[in-house]
Every structure is written in structure tokens, then in C-alpha cells.
Write a structure and sequence with these properties.
single chain; alpha+beta; two-stranded parallel ribbon; two-stranded antiparallel sheet; 2 helices; 4 strands; NAD(P)-bd_dom_sf
Length: about 90
């Protein structure tokens, strides 16, 4: 299962709807998420904990600096902006 996120809920749900025709929608759910909003980070963190118990992988394509959150004790995910050349894109779990 994958969680599709977007800052704009309407656009996120439209993207999810468009994926129905690709056959992937059975494996996707949508949740609103803005990496620059602490309340949104907390809401997604709570959702993932309740729904799945853990986070296996996170892809941030927002191009926004700085979000750090914990999904389970002893795990922390840090999202940082950077280019592949600089090696500054971090995902630490």
C-alpha cells in the first residue's frame, strides 16, 4: 500500500482518481500533507502510525526544506532539499 500526498486535497484526490485507469488505485490511498506545516506533519505521522504501524519508504518531491518526524520509537525521518550532485537529499530511518 502506498500513501499519495499533496498539499492541495482537491488536486491530490484528482490525481488519485486519474490513477484508477492505470490499475494502481487499489494500492493507493490519499492523505493531505504539507511538509512546511507542522500540523500537517503531525497528522500524517499519526495516520501512518494508526493505519500501518510503520513507514517503510518516503519520497519527498515537494522541493521544500526541512521536515523531521518520528513514525515509531527509534525511527526518525528527515527530509532535506538538495540536488543529487550535492548528496544533500536525506532520508534517515
Amino acid at each position: 500500500m502506498a500513501v499519495l500526498t499533496a498539499r492541495d486535497e482537491k488536486r491530490g484526490l484528482e490525481a488519485l482518481e486519474s490513477l484508477k485507469y492505470s490499475g494502481l488505485s487499489d494500492y493507493l490511498i490519499f492523505h493531505r500533507f504539507d511538509v512546511a506545516d507542522p500540523e500537517s506533519i503531525a497528522a500524517l505521522t499519526d495516520f501512518v502510525k494508526k493505519q500501518f504501524g510503520k513507514l517503510d519508504f518516503l519520497v519527498n518531491n515537494a522541493g521544500t526544506l526541512g521536515a523531521t518526524f518520528s513514525i515509531a520509537p527509534g525511527t526518525e525521518c528527515t527530509i532535506a532539499r538538495g540536488s543529487s550532485e550535492s548528496g544533500k537529499t536525506l532520508i534517515d530511518l
